[in-house]
Structure formats: structure tokens, C-alpha cells
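User: Some background: our group keeps a shared notebook of sequences we're curious about, and every so often someone picks one and asks for a predicted structure to add to the entry. Today it's my turn. The entry only has the sequence so far, pasted here. Could you supply the structure so I can complete it?
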Amino acid sequence: MNVRRLIPTTAVAGAVALGLMAVSACSTSAASDGRSGGKLRVVASFYPMQYLAEEIGGAHVSVSTLTQPGIEPHDLELKPRQTAELNDAGFILYLKGVQPAVDDAIAEADVEHKVDAAGLTTLEHDGAAGGHDHGHGAGDEGHAEEGHEHGGHESEGGDPHIWLDPVKYAEVAEKVGAKLAEADPDHAADYEKNTDALVAKLTALDTDFQQGLKNTATKTFITTHAAFGHLAERYGLDQEGIAGLDPEGEPSPARIRELQTIAKKEKVTTVFFEALASDRTAKTLAADTGLKTDVLDPLEGITPKSHGDDYLEVMRSNLAALEKALGAR
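Assistant: Of course. Here's the predicted structure to add to the notebook entry:
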């Protein structure tokens, strides 16, 4: 006789259900503590935040990013699994004002440690370094009030691209290190050590930019994506954005004429574009004015097209491009 046939079907179903409930409970418990394989589970909104988390967290964190390489971060719409990933995190690092959909999802996430990098440094341009951001939005027929005409993804109070200024980025790094130590005090000493190492690298990068851009034939550069306001301000340069902060924005005919005049007056040699956005506008303007084109990377993601494998390498590639375009001596 087959003894197994004597076990009622309902009993088997009940046992399976209890087993599934137990597995589900364990999984929920494991996820809710914000750890994965003994490491703090960190979710970063996009590459500049991912880089900080990886460099500072080191071996004690498991880092994932919501924005995959090659995806334009400003237009990101989250999938359900990414929203679930946020709720499983032990630490979320993001930059408010860059990705509206991400900001909304993070606001709803039930996670104790949510760090907005925009709150760790000043976003306003204070003009102290002599830099200017003359980015204009599509359809602008004249000069907008400086610092207030932007397209698409500006955070409240100013240009959100703080990572393109090594000094501001280092300031953020120091505070992110402190926040990670609060979230995971058992490894606070390592976070402090890693933070110090990263800040030292960023300080060296700042020195390279200072020296490389100290003496140039011109201080003005034209770029399709007016993302370099903080960098320009830091190193005494003038950024002329073709279509404001929106990388896909279209300039007005008046803005094109204005840029042609500026290019002649300021001895501009190059129109910069970025790898993740169309280069059509840059090439059209360059052809009309007899200028060259080159890549100036806003470092919103690392892809095979990037001129470097990480933040530091791409920033040094940006420095080399600026030195060439501005006639560094």
C-alpha cells in the first residue's frame, strides 16, 4: 500500500503554504534590515552618487544604481522592481532636483537613512570665482536673468551639477562619509579612512584644474548642455550654454546669433557637446561659425563612449579638452 496516498490533500497544501509563509517571512526580515550578504545595501540615484558610495563604502557596502549606463538620468522613469529596491535599501543616496521621478519615489520610501547630496553643499552661484552661466532656454529671445532661466531639471535654488566642481564634490563626500558612519557605526573608522582618501584625490584634481586653466587665451566656452556652471565659477571661466540646462533643448534663432557674436568677440574655438545627447545643434553652430566640436562630459553616467573609466579619469579628460579649447599656456 502506498502510505503517501493516505495523507489528505488539504494537509499537503497547508504544509506548503506554511513553508512559503516561513520563506517569505525570512526574506522580508532579511530585506528590511537594509543588508545584503552582511553588507549595507546602498541605492544610488545615478553615477555621481554611485561613485561616492562605492569609494567611501568600500568593502562594507553593496551598491546599486537606479540609472543604468547609457540612460539619460533626467528622464528616468522607475520600474516597479526599482521602487521595491528602494524600500529594501539600508541607505539611499541621491541628488534632489536632477531626477523628478526618483525624488518622488524616494520621498515615499520607508527607509531610515535617505541622504540628499543637494543638502550637503551650496547650490547657489555666488560669483566669487568670476565665472558666469549664460545658459538660455529654448525660445529665449534675449538674455534671461542670469541663473534663473533653465530647462528641465534644475533643483530649487541653482544648478544641480555640483559634482563637476571637485571642491563641492569633496565637501559632499565628507558629509556622505559621516552619514554612512551613522548608518553603519561598526565600520565608521573605515568610512572615515576611505573618505579621507577620496577627498585627497579630489583635492589633487582641483589643483590640476587650477594650474591647467590658470593662463588661457580665452575664458569662454560654449556647450550644448549648460551643466558646467559650478566648474566655470570655480575656475574663473564663462560658460555659454546653447539651450540652458536641458541637454535636448533647442535654442532660438536669437540665441544662435548671440552665440555667433560671442564666439568672435571672445575668441572661442570650440563648441562642446556630450556623448549621451545629440550633437546636431553643436555641429550646426560650429559649422556656421567656423568652430571645432569636442566632448565635454557632464559625467551623469559612464558608458563605452566615455573618455575614461571613472569620475577622475573623465574629469581629467574634460580638463584636457578645456585646456585645448581655451588655449592654455
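Suggested note for the entry: The radius of gyration is 24 Å. Residues 131 and 233 are 4 Å apart (CA to CA).
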